Amino acid sequence: MNRGALLMLALLLSGCAPHRAAALDPKTLPLTHLPQDPIVVFGGTPQGVAAAVAAAKMGVPTLLLARHRTLGGVLTRGWLATLDMSYDRINGMLLTQGLFLDFFNRIGDQISFSVPQAIQAFNEMVANAGVSLVRGVRLLKVKVDHHRITALFLANRFDPQAPPVWLPVRYVIDASRNAELAAMAGVPYTIGRQDTGLDRSMMAASLVFRITGVPWHPLAVYVRERAHRTHDGSGVNGTSIWGLSHLVANFKPSSPFFKLRGLNLALQPDGSILVNGLLIFGVNGDSARSRKEAWEAGAQEARRVVAYLRQASPLFAHAHFAGVAKSLYIRETRHILGLYRLSPTEVLYGAKFWDRVVLGSYPLDGQAYHPNEPALLMGVPATYSIPFRSIVPQRIDNLLVASQAASFDAIAAFSARTVPVQMDLGQAAGVAAALAVQRGVSFPEMAASRSLIHELQNDLIAQGALLDAPGLGRPVNQQEPGFHAAQVLFDHGLFMVPYGIQGSFGLRDPMIWPMFVANLLRYQLAVDPKAPALQFLQTEWNLHRAWAPVTVAQANQFFTTYARLLHLRPLPPPDGLSPESHAILTRGQAAQWTLEALEEIDAHWLDPHHVKDRLALDSRS
């Protein structure tokens, strides 16, 4: 018997068998006895936890205001139990190595994790850091004086009879998913994808539901074998399965506001499976009523999905509906205007900012905005950075916004909104707030000081953050034919990039039919869904699903028909291309042709001043 076994036997005989230490639960303070800590973090989201913990680790007393009893936001209340990870494209290193890595280790280094374990991890992080915590907070008002937030008016959600209280504040971090506090303070913002010029729609929401009775191992074996045979994009990684698009393709939703996409499955410790795949369109994520109605309707639709799956595959024959998440997964609401607005092109090409505080690389993977719209698979970025200026809002000097509502263009947020990146963004905000307290400066002053930013970056690195990688800041050839046109379209969400192309527009590659049609179909659905041209585009989309290249002659015929249906003059090919040529159309040529077509349709739509005027409509004084 080895030494370890002898020790275990001795412990058992003595009645002192080892056990797991009791989980830490941070002490909750009453709303009536709030400490006036120098830093207040609003939002018990993953970002909010990271911000509060980071600030406290810097030795600055920090107060975390959480809306719900459970910390963790979308991961714990929304059951979004699969993480979207960012790795460097050159050496494969994990890019989010700050407090997110601490969290990741606590949940067992699993991409799909146990929700109860995630709740415990967040509680332990807050308790260990000594963060003051108040749960059940509702924000009623924000007092602003001379561009500074001076007090928050707070109510107790758990006790509506309790009188609201004013909390004086010095530095504030808004880590709410929709920048609720920032909006109340008068920070300007855009709604949904408003900055693209298409419309003010928000990405589809999702409702995650739980099923039981499905054997995980046989399902995983099936998915692996099918993926190897068909290369359909499905996959398995431990407690995570994704794909199965063929299985859900024939589901008929009860309403056009629902759609079942490929599934993300997360195995839980009790053998149940969390299913993320039900899209809900038309949800206003800023409206409690809209969210409630969508949640109730989604819960009923989830039952229909489970019934369908039982009939669709023997592997789901004994599936049983076992409930839905407490809250919707809201992907998008508003995007604030900060000192800098991160653009989609900067994400794709891997911009290296001097004031970078976070790295990321997850694909620019967005869900549809309308039921008949193709998914927005905008491309795979190089390793990119997020500048500190993107979390410093305009108009308020003592506020940072650390959430998916930070100063990102809508398409840029497809990658920057992922939880690992967001947790490291929260950490950056927490460290910056602590530094501002220690140096007695405002956040705009910090953003303008290279020495303070350098100090901030060193403090982040000391907390484990990674701020450099081999794939960051590669040179960009902006003189490549078609680059300008592709950039304009891409930043407006109208130039998808295949996943096989990484960190560029791939302008010399062949243009593929599905993406060629999808770019214009998305435009038409947004700006004029009743036009006869829409039916033509939808027909072309259904005809050309195969991954086949477009010839110049085919593109010319396509644009000729499209122009006729819009009562426009013919849309000839760019200079140098013969309309009868059977040569393959490059992506650069397609970008030039598409941009010229859109400028002919609406000469003002892509005017930068026109877009700027639209953004100003949502400014709050």
Description:
With 621 residues, this protein is of the alpha+beta class. 35% of the residues lie in helices and 15% in strands. The chain has helices at 3-13, 46-57, 99-106, 115-129, 180-184, 216-230, 245-248, 288-312, 344-348, 413-416, 419-439, 443-447, 450-462, 483-491, 513-527, 532-543, 552-565, 587-601, 608-616, and strands spanning 39-42, 62-65, 132-134, 137-145, 148-156, 165-168, 171-174, 189-191, 205-206, 209-212, 235-237, 240-243, 258-267, 273-280, 320-324, 334-336, 356-360, 365-366, 376-377, 384-387, 399-401. Helix 2 (46-57) packs parallel to helix 11 and helix 11 crosses helix 13 (450-462). The longest helix has 25 residues, at 288-312. The radius of gyration is 25 Å and the shape is globular.
Main traits of this protein?
alpha+beta; seven-stranded antiparallel sheet; globular; disordered C terminus
Topology:
Layout: H1 3-13, E1 39-42, H2 46-57, E2 62-65, H3 99-106, H4 115-129, E3 132-134, E4 137-145, E5 148-156, E6 165-168, E7 171-174, H5 180-184, E8 189-191, E9 205-206, E10 209-212, H6 216-230, E11 235-237, E12 240-243, H7 245-248, E13 258-267, E14 273-280, H8 288-312, E15 320-324, E16 334-336, H9 344-348, E17 356-360, E18 365-366, E19 376-377, E20 384-387, E21 399-401, H10 413-416, H11 419-439, H12 443-447, H13 450-462, H14 483-491, H15 513-527, H16 532-543, H17 552-565, H18 587-601, H19 608-616
Parallel strand pairs: 1-2, 1-7, 2-3, 7-21
Antiparallel strand pairs: 4-5, 5-6, 8-16, 9-14, 10-14, 10-15, 11-12, 12-13, 13-14, 17-20, 18-19
